[in-house]
From TrEMBL, chain A:
Gene3D superfamilies: Periplasmic binding protein-like II (3.40.190.10). It comes from Paenibacillus helianthi. Coiled coil: none annotated. Residues 1-22 form the signal peptide. Pfam families: SBP_bac_1. This is Sugar ABC transporter substrate-binding protein. It comes from the Bacteria. The keyword Chaperone does not apply. Keywords: Cell membrane, Lipoprotein, Membrane, Palmitate, Signal.
UniProtKB/TrEMBL annotation, chain B:
Belongs to the binding-protein-dependent transport system permease family. Residues 79-293 form the ABC transmembrane type-1 domain. PANTHER family: ABC TRANSPORTER PERMEASE PROTEIN, INNER MEMBRANE ABC TRANSPORTER PERMEASE PROTEIN YCJO. This is Spermidine/putrescine ABC transporter permease.
Length: 450, 303
């Protein structure tokens, strides 16, 4: 009898819990139901964490039923943490990054098209919304447009008689750069060398920017056709090898990390660095203030944003794209209302007030409302803002936005497995440009087709 | 055929529970931890190694990942690098550790404590911190400590981590100079355990220092040496932090080790199936080498 009673009780409890569960789901699908949205982001600029706290507090005042949990990751470790979470099927609802085909390939990136209202679409400046689309589908909302260029030390450029303002205005060719480089090379009083150009040997920014300025949009073009397989890439590699041989790039380039490149710039050992972003203007202004305050030692520097030189017979191109928040669902999908709430938070974190990121980073705004909100409050110098605007006219869109996601993933693999080691071999003098170009051609054909 | 009455089975189970119940309850926690955090991931990874893994839709592809792996030139290069790293670091490290321990053992207790603590410090510091320090030592310009040293002798700076011919050696050098703390503690403990009477007997027989070392000290320290050899090989087969922090496997794959390749395959290319296959090949290799070590080096070791 006792056993039967126990069994009955268990069944009743199971029934109750099952009912309450389905009731819970129904409740969760109501717009006013309590919900939590997780956001993983980065220190986008010096004061972003505080800015984000303010944005979240404002959002929660308007939507008291939605709790926004934010986590600010480090630039070094964050991507790995996210990759693990994504591949375990439990990414955060919103993640700060540029839209990436490999993310879409997992099937967990949230298609935002059903949530995009005309009001939101019309607020974005022409061409900017497309920077967070893959295959025509919207997976994120851009917060700002990133822009890569080179950065110069105004004192060194002027001492060598380089008309940096004319370069900002009109751009320059590879030949013009080499002429300038000859003037920028010299021995410093402490015995070290002042190099015209210093780049890091660990990333691919340098070859990517130079090849874009030699008529190659990327390893593949938008249609998926292999580009780095002819005289254009050989010419680009030969140009780099020439810079190394002439001493315009340090012979230690293969072992120079990004931090070392910055150190050399601050020490006056690099006239120009690759890559640089307009935000360096604000960063270096802050460093100058620290030097004045006595908290940092070193020479004060005036930053000059420079376009990357282009091959004499090729058009100038500026590497640009967008970064912002990408929306994800989880393997255990939390339902339609959760997706709607995610989009609400996404739109808020990318809205007018969030335009401060573009302002801080001295980058073009992506939304009309942001430009209006921060009109007259620019933080960068007038020269940098103007140079950035001119460079933006030659924008080269990331081809990955148009490529099939599987092909984009293969291109990424080709870069990591073939381009990176070959560039290191070129920098260290272990391979000739011809051997590198041949390797690109043969391995590219195997991995990417023709 | 005899049958056991259900009541008897129940009573013996009950007795078992009464007598050993608490013991089973206590081992339940570690068994559960083992099942959840070791066995389940290993079995999942094994299954994954036969799949083209995707979080939403994995497909079974049999031995394709293993076939791809063995046809991949980068895998063989990483294997070669790992073997070179292991062969160059483990024996040399054991010799350095042994010599240091022997020297420290001759000292007074307070100096022994000082050196034990000093040499153990790198084992306490994180691998990341140590790598950052070594990055500064290997700085390619004449700012780097090592290049400054060369400069004193009128030699040109070396691009330690930026050239294929020196990059792997640089990681080996770093390992030689910084990972002896735990080994020294073990050797010193073992040396303390060698009976003094054996040395006294040898002294009576006018045995030389070398004879005492080869006939007494070394044979009695063999279990410790075997332990250090086996764990050293396992650790160096899995070398990752220094590669990740200092060279990212470059230049031109010169420092890509199997552990780094697994990381790259999984977290840069999202090929979790292939990465799992690589992990199982690495595990198999480690087991094989460990078995060989035990078979050939432990024949005259007494525990």
């Amino acid at each position: 009898m006792k056993k039967r009673l126990c069994l009955g009780l268990v069944l009743v409890m199971m029934l109750i819990s099952a009912c309450s569960n389905s009731g819970g789901k129904e409740a969760a699908n109501r717009p006013d139901a309590k919900d939590t949205i997780t956001v993983w982001t980065y220190p986008v600029h010096g004061t972003y964490e505080d800015e984000l706290k303010g944005l979240v507090a404002d959002f929660q005042k308007e939507h008291p039923n939605i709790t926004v949990k934010t986590e600010v990751l480090s630039w070094a470790e964050g991507p790995k943490k996210f990759d693990v979470a994504l591949n375990a099927g439990s990414p955060p609802d919103l993640y700060f990054h540029s839209v990436d085909g490999t993310y879409v390939n997992t099937g967990l990136a949230l298609d935002l098209d059903p949530f995009m209202t005309n009001e939101i679409k019309n607020d974005y400046l022409p061409g900017t919304l497309a920077l967070a689309q893959i295959g025509g589908k919207q997976y994120g909302l851009p917060l700002y447009q990133f822009q890569w260029g080179w950065g110069g030390n105004k004192r060194i450029l002027e001492e060598a008689g380089i008309d940096w303002a004319a370069i900002q205005q009109n751009g320059w060719t590879w030949s013009e750069f080499e002429t300038a480089a000859a003037k920028l090379t010299k021995k410093l009083p402490d015995g070290s060398t002042q190099y015209p150009l210093v780049t890091d040997g660990t990333s691919l920014d340098f070859i990517e920017m130079l090849s874009r300025n030699n008529n190659m949009p990327d390893v593949l073009d938008e249609s998926g056709a292999f580009q780095w397989n002819d005289d254009r890439i050989l010419g680009t590699l030969s140009f780099i090898k020439g810079l190394l041989d002439k001493g315009y790039l340090p012979k230690e380039t293969s072992a120079i990390a990004p931090a070392k490149r910055s150190d050399m710039f601050y020490a006056g050992q690099a006239a120009i660095i690759s890559k640089a972003i307009p935000y360096y203007d604000v960063m270096i202004q802050n460093r100058n203030k620290d030097i004045d305050a006595g908290t940092v030692k070193g020479e004060k520097i005036d930053f000059v944003l420079l376009p990357v030189p282009h091959k004499d017979d090729a058009p100038a191109k500026t590497t640009m794209g967008a970064e912002g928040y990408i929306a994800f669902k989880q393997k255990n999908d939390k339902g339609e209302q959760h997706a709607k709430n995610t989009f609400l938070v996404l739109d808020y974190l990318s809205g007018a007030k969030a335009g401060n990121s573009s302002n801080e980073l001295v980058l073009p705004f992506v939304r009309k409302s942001q430009a209006e909100q921060y009109a007259g409050k620019a933080l960068g110098t007038e020269e940098t803002i103007k140079a950035s605007e001119i460079m933006a006219k030659n924008m080269a869109m990331p081809v990955t936005l148009k490529l099939d996601t599987a092909i984009a993933a293969k291109m990424k693999q080709f870069k990591e497995q073939v381009v990176t080691p070959n560039m290191q071999a070129l920098y260290s003098g272990e391979k000739t440009p011809e051997a590198v170009a041949e390797d690109f051609k043969s391995k590219g054909s195997q991995m990417l087709g023709k | 055929m005899t049958t056991i009455a259900p009541n008897r089975v129940r009573s013996s189970a009950g007795r078992l529970w009464r007598e050993y119940g608490w013991a089973y309850l206590f081992i339940l926690a570690p068994v559960l931890l083992f099942l959840v955090f070791t066995l389940y991931p290993v079995v999942s990874a094994l299954i994954m190694s036969f799949q083209q893994y995707n979080i939403m839709n994995s497909t079974w592809i049999g031995f394709d990942n293993y076939e791809r792996l063995f046809q991949d030139a980068t895998f063989w290069k990483s294997m070669r690098n790992t073997v070179i790293f292991t062969v160059c670091t483990v024996p040399v490290n054991i010799i350095i550790t042994f010599v240091l321990s022997y020297l420290i053992y001759q000292m007074k207790t307070k100096w022994q404590t000082f050196f034990k603590a000093t040499l153990y410090l790198p084992a306490v510091a994180s691998g990341v911190t140590i790598s950052i320090v070594w990055l500064a030592i290997f700085d390619p310009t004449n700012v780097g400590l090592l290049n400054r040293f060369l400069e004193w002798f009128g030699l040109d700076p070396v691009i330690w981590l930026g050239q294929s011919k020196t990059a792997l050696f640089s990681l080996i050098l770093m390992n030689w100079l910084g990972s002896h703390g735990a080994g020294i503690i073990l050797y010193l403990a073992s040396m303390g355990g060698v009976p003094k009477s054996l040395y006294e007997a040898a002294d009576i027989d006018h045995a030389s220092g070398w004879t005492k070392f080869t006939r007494i000290t070394w044979p009695l320290l063999k279990p410790t040496t075997l332990y250090l050899l086996v764990t050293g090989v396992i650790t160096s087969f899995q070398v990752f932090i220094s590669v990740y922090m200092m060279t990212q496997g470059g230049p031109n794959f010169a420092t890509t080790t199997i552990a780094y390749l697994i990381y790259q395959t999984a977290f840069q290319f999202y090929e979790f199936g292939l990465a799992s296959a690589q992990s199982f090949v690495l595990a198999f290799l480690i087991i094989l080498v460990s078995v060989i070590q035990f078979k050939y080096f432990s024949s005259d070791v007494e525990y």
